Amino acid sequence: MDAEEFFETVTKRPELLPAYTEAAQAEGMAGEGNEVCLETADFLERLRSEEGSRPWKIVDLGCGDAALAKEMRQRRPDLEMTCVDAAPLARGIVVQNLAALPDDWAAAFDVAVLCRALWSLDYEKVLSEAHRVLKQSPDSRVLVVEPIKRWLDRSKDGGAEQPNELIQALQRAGFYMLRAENVRFQDGAEEGDGTKGVFQFLWASPVPP
Question: Domain tally for the chain?
Fold first, then answer.
């Protein structure tokens, strides 16, 4: 399913997205205080500290129940953060198709976050939209947080493993890679390849650094 089809589906059947979020909460991957949310907030804090304390205007694309925004605002009450998803699962969420954000959002944000948000078939459109809404500055950033197994599976071709498809997709969308880290979470037992519970945190710039 692509992002537009999903957006139209949940507009007609708004109960679908809460059901998905509840399933993710049961896995410990959604809701306030979940491990992925806390690690993402820590990652943002570390990188902000490394790159200077300038104000950040953040957009959280595919925010789900806005747990990351709640966590970040507890740490920094003055933080300006826009939460976007296909359904209003929490107060203040802007309802939009992630693959077709408003025209007047172009170059509006300093940081775009996509945490477990690139599940649609047209994920490259979502990445391109993230690139478009970022200020075209060497100080702007995108942070993508995704289960690594999903992208290793997409990188296989006839049994031969190819370079990480997510990194390639970011580069095709116009981003320049700055950092890639893998984080293993406690929730969920490992599968045979040892990848379950491992997320990749990718940090990139919309222009050459």
Answer: 1
pLDDT value at residue 33:
62
pLDDT in tens, 68-86: 999 999 998 888 999 999 8
| Bridge partners for 80 per DSSP | 57
d(CA 196, CA 58): 29
Asked if residues 74 and 37 have their Cβ atoms less than 8 Å apart, the reply is: no
The H or E element containing residue 180 is: strand 176-184
**Are the C-beta atoms of 115 and 126 separated by less than 8 Å?**
no
Q: In the structure encoding, which two tokens stand for residue 111, read together?
A: 């940081």
CB 134 within 8 A of CB 105: no
Residue 198: domain span:
3-205
pTM for the full predicted model: 0.86
CATH number at residue 56: 3.40.50.150
pLDDT at 179 over 60: yes
Three-state secondary-structure class, residue 177 = strand
